[in-house]
């Protein structure tokens, strides 16, 4: 499944893992299942921190596979092929599950960890979609960070029946708890803002804990800069 160049690059990435990763496949007798089994076996051969096993008794889509830490059933799941534009999504999911940190802002990562509620996301993608990886990667990261968030990235080419049944007209198409959530490109920040309904309340509580400001300047344009200079000249401490 992977050529020599891809294996070399992936092996280098997997050296960044700090904790073990388990690939748990749920397969059937289809040709696509055979492809996924071959792919996961090749990945597991590239790092001693990655193991591969099958569990075909799980009540999930076939073929699919979960990326998790040993002993855990929490993590991002791919249903169908994770190749094409989604190969990067697969690599990042392996790295994040294996303890390699995301480059997203620490405050945003903490916000994801603090999200309260049970969320089950499903994202339909195609292997040629340019906008799909951003959405898949955002939701995969959320599933890695918060045990109450689940995400399955679904290859529409493999699960064409679902595309038809749900009348999916374009990808990426995201469903949350069985209902339409969004379509098209979305950033991690946008997704978090949409589901974290308690964020404003927490921000207000945090602001109320701070001492009173002499002057609070919102914005950093010319007007904001002038206001800061004027406040400083008047012996105020601008923030």
TrEMBL record:
The keyword NADP applies. It comes from the Bacteria. Residues 126-194 form the Thioredoxin-like fold domain. The keyword Lyase does not apply. The lineage of its organism: Bacteria, Pseudomonadati, Pseudomonadota, Gammaproteobacteria, Enterobacterales. Serves to protect the cell against DNA damage by alkyl hydroperoxides. It can use either NADH or NADPH as electron donor for direct reduction of redox dyes or of alkyl hydroperoxides when combined with the AhpC protein. One of its GO terms (molecular function) is oxidoreductase activity. This is Alkyl hydroperoxide reductase subunit F. It comes from Citrobacter koseri. InterPro entries: AhpF_NTD_C, AhpF_NTD_N, FAD/NAD-bd_sf, Thioredoxin-like_fold, Thioredoxin-like_sf. Keywords: NADP, Oxidoreductase.
């Amino acid at each position: 499944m992977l050529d020599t160049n891809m294996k070399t690059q992936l092996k280098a990435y997997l050296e960044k893992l700090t904790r073990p990763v388990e690939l748990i496949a749920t397969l059937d007798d289809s040709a696509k299942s055979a492809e996924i089994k071959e792919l996961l076996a090749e990945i597991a051969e590239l790092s001693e921190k990655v193991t591969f096993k099958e569990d075909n008794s799980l009540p999930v889509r076939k073929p699919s596979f979960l990326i998790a830490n040993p002993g855990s059933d929490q993590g991002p799941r791919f249903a169908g092929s994770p190749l094409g534009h989604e190969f990067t999504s697969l690599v990042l999911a392996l790295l994040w599950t294996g303890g390699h940190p995301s480059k997203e802002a620490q405050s945003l990562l903490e916000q994801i960890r603090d999200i309260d509620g049970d969320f089950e996301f499903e994202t339909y993608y195609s292997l040629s979609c340019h906008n799909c990886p951003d959405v898949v990667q955002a939701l995969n990261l959320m599933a890695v960070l918060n045990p109450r968030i689940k995400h399955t990235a679904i290859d529409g080419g493999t699960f064409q029946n679902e595309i038809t049944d749900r009348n999916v007209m374009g990808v990426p198409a995201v469903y949350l708890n069985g209902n339409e959530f969004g379509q098209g490109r979305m950033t991690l920040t946008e997704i978090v803002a949409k589901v974290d309904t308690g964020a404003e309340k927490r921000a207000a509580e945090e602001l109320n804990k701070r001492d009173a400001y002499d002057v609070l300047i919102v914005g950093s344009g010319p007007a904001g800069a002038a206001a800061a200079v004027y406040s400083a000249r008047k012996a105020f401490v601008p923030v």
